[in-house]
Amino acid sequence: MTMPKGNGEAGHLERIRAIRCSNSYRQSHVDPDFMNRVELRPVRLQLELLKPELIMQEQGVRSTIVVFGGTRVVERELAAQRLADARRALEQKPDDVRLQQRVRILTNVLQKAHYYDEAREFARIASQHQIDHHCDYVICTGGGPGIMEAANRGAFDVGAKSIGLNITLPFEQEPNSYITPELCFEFKYFAIRKMHFLMRAKAMVAFPGGFGTMDELFEALTLIQTRRMQPIPVVLFGRDYWRRIVDWDLFVEEGTISPEDLDLIAYAETAQECWQVIEDFYREKPAERLPRGQ
Questions:
Q1: Residue 132 — left, alpha, or beta (φ > 0 → left; ψ -120 to 50 → alpha)?
Q2: What class is the 41-73+113-287 domain?
Q3: For the segment 82-118, what is each residue's pLDDT rounded down to a tens digit?
């Protein structure tokens, strides 16, 4: 910007206006152009770690149970409707290979609809252990639809707090509406989001899901295996699904993990069974009642 010329009061006011409108005159923390510079990434990372941490302290969140699972595992009614629509489309074009595949996929999705109900029920059970302002076993999800929605919804059913750690994506992703508003966060960086998943985690429950679920699951297992965080129960919901998706025994046979590493994983088929695994873990290891990731 060129400095306005001229003397007198008018020139003085124009020069002051030019100064106040300059980007350089903005205070750093309210200057989005400055805060979004590549060189400011370390500061953004620090802020993204600190803000949720302070808010969770203020909200009395002491420990969490992290629930992961597929965004496409939805309520039975919705899954059935989507399958019916796909079948009608296939009737119109019976030779369409893509439609044939879509019907097969949606049939499998419908068969997994009961996991939505189990995730909701598990969250109800866990959330009943929140006491006054000091909150333990607070359900923490990625904040999206599917299994995450079911878990946040279960906490909502019993009037308990729950956390949603959403992430900025190239395509729009709304947080599900059952998250406690004061505990819903949007992250720019996956790495910091992952830290918040595990910093207060007392357990991790993984329902059938895709790449995102696998990513979080294997990161947690790696941190526990390498003793970078205290052990927590890692419960895989649906033994048949996980046994078909991941050949855990083959890891051992190939010599890439130790046989005892399989003990890091437990399985559950119902919400009550899943809760029992967590209770048993802490009954046997009372010294680890409030583990925190490093």
A1: left
A2: alpha beta
A3: 999 999 999 999 999 999 999 999 999 999 999 999 9
